[in-house]
Amino acid sequence: MPAAHDQEVAKALHPLHAALLAGVAPLLVCALLSDCAYATTQETQWANFASWLLVGGLVLAGVVVLWALIDLLRKRHRTRSRILYTVIVLAMVALGFLSALEHAKDGWGAMPQGLILSAIAALLAIVATWIGFSALRTGGAR
Predict the structure, then answer these.
(1) CB-based contacts of 122: which residues, under 8 Å, 6+ apart?
(2) What is the pTM of this model?
(3) Residues 6 or more apart whose Cβ sits within 8 Å of residue 56
(4) Short-list 36, 30, 105, CA closest to 60
(5) Residues 108-117: what's their mean pLDDT?
(6) What is the mean pLDDT of the chain?
(7) What is the reported pLDDT for 119?
(8) For the chain, what is the HEC assignment?
(9) CA separation for the pair 15, 142 (Å, rounded)
(10) Which of 6, 16, 112, 131 is most buried as measured by Cβ atoms within 10 A of its Cβ?
(11) Whole-number Å distance between alpha carbons of 92 and 120
(12) How far apart are the C-alpha atoms of 19 and 33, rounded to whole Å?
């Protein structure tokens, strides 16, 4: 009979941390979709939507990254998956911030760099959410 406690099991995210993390991915993905709409239609309002969605995502992501760093400082929460999660969240915030700076340019001047940075930030948000919520699985579940 295999022991379920032999493996290092990551603790689940705090419910508020999980709720904030769950809000980041949709905002960044919608910013990417707005950038795609702007790239195809050249309607300036889509670029504005992308900027607003990026700012909203970055506000939530700022709290998430602070929470992840504080969790990482606590020894009992320091696992490989939690370290990877924190690194991905930091990269997501950095690229999201660069994307927001790129979106601050006038209209078409943000393309294609803004679109590329939004795509990478959205992908990192999805990966961070996946890793963050995968800690909810316990012990012997396969």
Answers:
(1) 25, 28, 29, 31, 32
(2) 0.84
(3) 27
(4) 30
(5) 88
(6) 87
(7) 97
(8) CCCCCCCCCCCCCCHHHHHHHHHHHHHHHHHHHHHHHHHHHCCHHHHHHHHHHHHHHHHHHHHHHHHHHHHHHCHHHCCHHHHHHHHHHHHHHHHHHHHHHHHCCCHHHHCCHHHHHHHHHHHHHHHHHHHHHHCCCCCCCC
(9) 23
(10) 131
(11) 8
(12) 22
Do residues 47 and 34 make contact, with C-beta atoms less than 8 angstroms apart? yes
Which domains does the chain show, CATH number per domain?
15-134 (1.20.120)
- For residue 70, pLDDT over 50 is answered with yes
Q: Is 25 exposed, middle or buried (0-12, 13-18, 19+ CB in 10 A)?
A: buried
Q: Which two tokens stand for residue 11?
A: 């603790």
Here the tokens at position 28 are: 């960044």
Token pair of 2, please?
């295999």
Confidence of residue 108 (pLDDT cuts 50, 70, 90): confident
